[in-house]
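> example.struct
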């Protein structure tokens, strides 16, 4: 262990000792204060004083100031052990407590008659448990953070039954659904809908085996009758896309001319609808204990400036909790007031550590509402934009057969490209236009058409976004590579000019890329929708190659902070002063002052997907990619300061109160009470999370990951892996050799793909962590 590390450990140990000593003094002074029945207050104080001195749980009965009632084991002014808590609205919890949180096994009941019996964690239904709704619905299985997640069986009030896998409150994975009329389905599910491969069996013996999408047959499938007759083909709700062959049973050649495959959609499936889930009126984690509200605050959380300059909003001071029990006015006796101030100064003083700069409030950067310059007539790239829009309209609108997701190897051939001439006067296949004559090239058109289908991009919407009446917007400055970026008016798509070498890399890895994004739906790598080239006629014969990608930050939320993270340190800092940083400024590794906390299920999925994506990029000899992260802060004060959440992280990495780990109270009400809204949340998109502020030491400016401060913020996160078209070519090898002479080889970006992948993952798994 280095001297510096040894000093950090000793400082941390001293801080822990100081914290424990301060807590013991607080408990010895205030451990006797409580609110009980007024008639019993005096005689109870002596008993509680003696028990408090022993620091052991004891049986208590409390009538709280707001009318709530608690009886059970009590320790350190909080429910701890077995206890019963009754809220004034009729909700009740009986079970295990730990430091005021529902933790362990218990039973939560609602006034409606609904109840949950099972495991709790930090106030949430989490683990194995049984929920019975007021109408008779019953779910028995696994839960994560109030949502069905894992394996479970649900019996619906109408008699239907689902037995299978769940994800974020909805059926997802493999499962069986049994209807009361005798029909049943066994197969894949997604977002509460039948989706993937599966078998539907009707009560009359008919069955369908094949692919499904959004609850109906879609793609290859076979419909069989009990007598052995079957129909096999491509299924679609659109009759024009439906095609197949009817095979009668035995040696008979007669076809059932009265049977129409569309009857499966119109008649056969009409009486087999999936029952919607019940909406819970209020969740156990939303039931706050009156214990945590200070009688001094008037229902508003305290706000103060700590001695190190950090704003602490909603941070509970040691004596706020206790004031709930004594019921006295501000101040109390002069002696108690002085002792309280001494303890507060002692505890707050722990925030100052030698070697850290002052931790001032974080302000949101200036918000730029419309990024980029609109390309209008007179702009130097106006004609190029017109050419691009004409070409896209021609490529996407060109008639083509229905694409199967199973592509032949020939579709990925580098020679698979289509040139189209666009004279100003127009041709039989191209419209007349005001621009100069140009040629248009589509690279591997079938592959990108299928990718758009795979990514569920509607062709009409795609054309409207890029080729509508609204002009594109050019970003203010080209990237480091010299490429220019353009945004569509609705922000859904980003267009990037490319070098010939990048085009070659993409074409080379296109088959592997296609297979990767097809297999891993939650992949974080950039989504590509089209690869094209415009060749201008005339003396210059200039070629402009460009790729169309999804815009990661297309959202109704304002993106307050953007980070481009690689895990290297050389040159990885923004050279702008704080006053010039805007919401569109891309910050880098050494600008990062947060670690990102994801809920357990999301964190595990994130780690798995980062590993898969990095292994794919390593196999394709790709390096110099980065994780682009966008943060929307949910709480901002009127003067532009970020407002920390009420939850703090202690030195052990655990939360110090029961604030929801991700969403504000209003968002919890809207989101968790309606699990269907989770469909909008995906890995890397619209993800509710928390970030914890970090600080770098003054004497360690190149420190990649700062020290956690415990100050947390509720955010909506966006992230994805970008710049995946740089292979480890001769130029990068020379760059590595040259910079390795001048700098630490581990600090530079240009390294071997295997080393790059390992370093990237190591860094990402340090700045992303599981919510405690």
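> example.seq
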């Amino acid at each position: 262990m280095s001297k510096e590390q040894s000093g950090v450990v000793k400082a941390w140990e001293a801080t822990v000792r100081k914290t424990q000593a301060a807590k013991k003094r607080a408990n010895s002074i205030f451990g006797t204060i409580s609110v009980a029945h007024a008639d019993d207050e005096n005689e109870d104080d002596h008993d509680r004083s003696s028990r408090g001195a022993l620091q052991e749980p004891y049986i208590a009965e409390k009538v709280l100031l707001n009318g709530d009632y608690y009886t059970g084991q009590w320790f350190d002014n909080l429910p701890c052990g077995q206890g019963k808590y009754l809220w004034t609205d009729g909700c009740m919890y009986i079970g295990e407590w730990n430091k005021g949180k529902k933790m362990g096994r218990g039973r939560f009941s609602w006034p409606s008659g609904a109840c949950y019996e099972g495991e709790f964690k930090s106030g949430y239904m989490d683990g194995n448990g049984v929920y019975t709704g007021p109408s008779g619905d019953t779910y028995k299985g696994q839960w994560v953070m109030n949502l069905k997640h894992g394996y479970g069986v649900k019996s619906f009030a109408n008699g239907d039954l689902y037995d299978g896998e769940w994800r974020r409150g909805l059926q997802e994975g493999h499962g069986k659904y049994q209807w009361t009329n005798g029909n049943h389905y066994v197969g894949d599910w997604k977002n509460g809908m039948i989706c993937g491969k599966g078998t539907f069996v009707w009560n009359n013996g008919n069955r369908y085996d094949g692919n499904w999408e959004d609850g109906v047959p879609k793609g290859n499938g076979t419909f069989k009758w009990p007598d052995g007759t079957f129909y096999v083909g491509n299924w679609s709700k659109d009759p024009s896309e439906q095609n197949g062959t009817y095979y009668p049973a035995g040696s008979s050649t007669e076809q059932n001319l009265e049977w129409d495959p569309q009857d499966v959609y119109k008649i056969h499936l009409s009486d087999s609808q999936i029952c919607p889930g019940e909406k819970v009126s209020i969740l156990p984690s939303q039931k706050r204990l009156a214990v945590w509200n200070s009688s001094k605050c008037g229902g508003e959380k305290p706000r103060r400036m700590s001695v190190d300059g950090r704003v602490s909003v909603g941070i509970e001071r040691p004596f706020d909790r206790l004031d709930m029990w004594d019921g006295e006015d501000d101040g109390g006796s002069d002696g108690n007031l002085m002792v309280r101030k001494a303890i507060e100064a002692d505890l707050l003083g722990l925030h100052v550590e030698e070697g850290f700069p002052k931790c001032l409030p974080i302000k949101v950067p200036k918000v730029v509402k419309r990024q980029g310059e609109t390309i209008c007539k007179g702009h130097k790239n106006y004609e190029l934009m017109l050419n691009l829009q004409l070409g896209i309209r021609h490529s996407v609108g060109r008639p083509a057969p229905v694409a199967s997701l199973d592509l032949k190897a020939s579709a990925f051939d580098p020679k698979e490209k289509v040139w189209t001439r666009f004279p100003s006067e127009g041709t039989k296949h191209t419209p007349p236009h005001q621009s100069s004559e140009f040629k248009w090239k589509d690279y591997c058109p079938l592959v990108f058409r299928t990718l758009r289908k795979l990514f569920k991009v509607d062709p009409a919407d795609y054309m409207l976004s890029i080729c509508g009446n609204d002009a594109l917007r050019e970003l203010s400055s080209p990237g480091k590579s010299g490429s220019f970026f353009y945004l569509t008016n609705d922000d859904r798509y980003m267009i990037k000019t490319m070098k010939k070498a990048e085009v070659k890399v993409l074409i080379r890895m296109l088959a592997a890329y296609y297979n990767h994004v097809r297999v891993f739906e939650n992949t974080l790598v950039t989504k590509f929708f089209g690869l094209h080239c415009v060749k201008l006629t005339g003396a210059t014969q200039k070629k402009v190659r460009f790729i169309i990608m999804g815009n990661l930050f297309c959202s109704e939320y304002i993106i307050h902070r953007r980070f481009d993270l690689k895990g290297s340190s050389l040159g990885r800092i923004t050279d702008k002063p704080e006053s010039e940083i805007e919401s569109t400024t891309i910050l880098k590794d050494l600008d990062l002052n947060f670690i990102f906390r994801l809920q357990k299920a999301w964190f595990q999925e994130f780690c798995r997907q980062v590993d898969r994506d990095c292994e794919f990029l390593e196999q394709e000899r790709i390096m110099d990619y980065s994780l682009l992260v966008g943060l929307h802060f949910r709480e901002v004060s009127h003067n532009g300061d970020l407002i920390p959440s009420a939850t703090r992280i202690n030195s052990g990495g655990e939360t110090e109160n029961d604030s929801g780990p991700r969403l504000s109270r209003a968002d919890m009400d809207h989101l968790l009470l309606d699990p269907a809204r989770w469909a909008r949340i995906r890995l890397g998109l619209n993800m509710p999370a928390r970030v914890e502020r970090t600080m770098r030491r003054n004497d360690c400016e190149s420190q990649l990951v700062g020290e956690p401060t415990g100050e947390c913020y509720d955010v909506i996160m966006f992230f994805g892996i970008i710049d995946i078209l740089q292979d480890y070519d001769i130029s990068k090898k020379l760059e590595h050799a040259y910079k390795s002479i001048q700098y630490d080889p581990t600090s530079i970006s240009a390294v071997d793909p295997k080393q790059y992948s390992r370093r990237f993952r190591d860094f990402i798994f340090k700045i992303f962590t599981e919510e405690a």
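> remarks
Residues 3-30 form the longest helix (28 residues).
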